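Final report, Chapter 2: Outcomes

The project's central promise was a pipeline that accepts a single protein chain and returns its three-dimensional structure in a standardized token representation, suitable for archiving and comparison. That pipeline is now operational. To close this chapter, we reproduce one record exactly as it appears in the project archive, with the input sequence first and the structure output second.
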Amino acid sequence: MMAESIERANMKRLTLTSHFEMKQEKLRREEEKKRQEKEEARKKLVSEDVAVNGSENMNVETSDQVLLDKGKAAVVFDPDPLVLKLQEDLAAQKTEQELLKEEVRHLTESQNHVLS
């Protein structure tokens, strides 16, 4: 009787849930766990860095970021000549494509007249 119970317990039970969905859920949980572990490791490294370098390093980084942000707002770049040429070529291609579309439309209309 005990042997029968153990044998029945070892048998695969049929369920209404898809095994594929269960595998996907398991994979999703594993990926989430790995992501959380990476996030915790990153936070640990950041906290160790702050402990080693102190808050002085953070003040320097934020002030540098403020300076960079201010500099970005004031500077206006002239586009590279290559970029300007590519933009002109793109505009020329677009107009040529429109002309080709118009020509194809005229040809199909004339073919329709010939076939009619």
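Archive annotation: The mean pLDDT is 78.
This record, like all others produced under the grant, will remain available to the consortium after the project formally closes.
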